[in-house]
Each structure stands twice: as C-alpha cells, then as structure tokens.
C-alpha cells in the first residue's frame, strides 16, 4: 500500500509518523504528530460510529436532533482542525493524510444513511461517492510519488455545501415549526455540492495528470 511521505505502516499494523528531528508545535516538549489539530481529526473519525448509532438507534424527533448534533460537532472539527493547523503552524503528515479521509468517511456515512431512508437522491449519492473514491485513490497514488493533492477553494466550498445539505436533510422532520421545507433546501444544497464535487475532482485530476504521465 502506498503511503504519504512521513507516514509508515509497521509490520504489526501500527501507524508510525516520521517527523523532522526537533519538530514541535511551538509548545515545549510537544510532538507535532500529537498536536491539537490532529487530536481533533482523530476525534472526528471516532465520532462517525457514534453518529451512525444515534441515527439508527435513537427513535423519533429527538433521535434526529441527537444524530444531527453529533454530526454537527464532527463537521465543526473539520473546520477547526484545518484553521488551527494553519494559524498555529502545526501542519503534519498525519493531518495532511487523515483530515480528508475523515471528511470523506463522515460525509459518505451520512449520505448512505439518508439514501437508505429515502431522503437523498440515488444519482447524487452515486456521483459524490464515485468522485470521493477516485480522489482518495489519486491522493494515495500521488503520495507514493512524493507529491500531494492540496485542497482547492472549490473543494472547500464543496465540503461546506455537503455538510449543510446533510444537516438540513437530517433535520427534515426534527423542526416541524419552521415555515419552509428543510428537505427541499437540503436537496438543493446537495445538487450544488455534487456540481462542486465534479468540478473540483476534474481540477485535481487535471493538475495531477502531467506528473502521472511522467511517471508512467
């Protein structure tokens, strides 16, 4: 399996993060691989099964609100870990690799749940899922070439619309006193997110293609 620079998988299956000697996050004695942004990324992955369990097992309107709250907290860490990593100078190989993976796992798990309940269009879910799988494979391949696929502005907007669409679709029946249809708003945001997904996916492939051809 290909790994990004700075990440190695040992024979026992454990992940080992290689950092430059003396690298710290600006706080004495703190290893950059264990900094706050990376802890938030890890917490997002841990919250995924909690979110899925709440969505499936918690009944009625309160179940919708609880699962939406868990998803909202996980989505908030997506913004917070990137912001903290940039502003505090704590960007690491672990974060560069696992942050987009955590985002995709969170979004795809939510979309599949909504699809199973009949609240997300099958075509949009298939397009988003296919795009995410392709880009994950591209990131891993480029990591093997000692290169990367940096997140673009369109990709960030894509994630924002995806998260918004999912929250609206999950809250569809949880706030019946609202005068407008949350499900209609959510589906509209999901259409925008799908368009941005395809756009950003094309940009990523176009940027990486010259390097791929050079190595083939």
What characteristics describe this protein?
single chain; 216 residues; mainly alpha; Four Helix Bundle (Hemerythrin (Met), subunit A); two-stranded antiparallel sheet; 3% strand
Walk me through the structure.
- α5 packs antiparallel against α6.
- 69% of the residues lie in helices and 3% in strands.
- It has a single domain (7-17, 29-215), classed as Up-down Bundle (Four Helix Bundle (Hemerythrin (Met), subunit A)).
- The protein is globular and about 55 Å long.
- The protein has a two-stranded antiparallel sheet.
- It contains six helices and two strands; from the N terminus they run ββαααααα.
- With 216 residues, the protein is mainly alpha-helical.
- The longest helix has 34 residues, at 182-215.
- β1 and β2 form a beta hairpin.
Q: What's the number of helices?
A: 6
Q: Distance between the terminal alpha carbons, to the nearest Å?
A: 18 Å
Summarize the biggest pleated sheet. Answer: 2 strands, antiparallel
**Low confidence ranges:** 12-32
Query: What is the level-2 CATH architecture name?
Result: Up-down Bundle
Full CATH superfamily name: CDP-alcohol phosphotransferase transmembrane (TM) domain
How many structural domains can be distinguished in the coordinates? 1
Q: SSE string, helix = H, strand = E?
A: EEHHHHHH
Name the CATH class: Mainly Alpha
> Do you know the CATH topology?
Four Helix Bundle (Hemerythrin (Met), subunit A)
Number of strands: 2
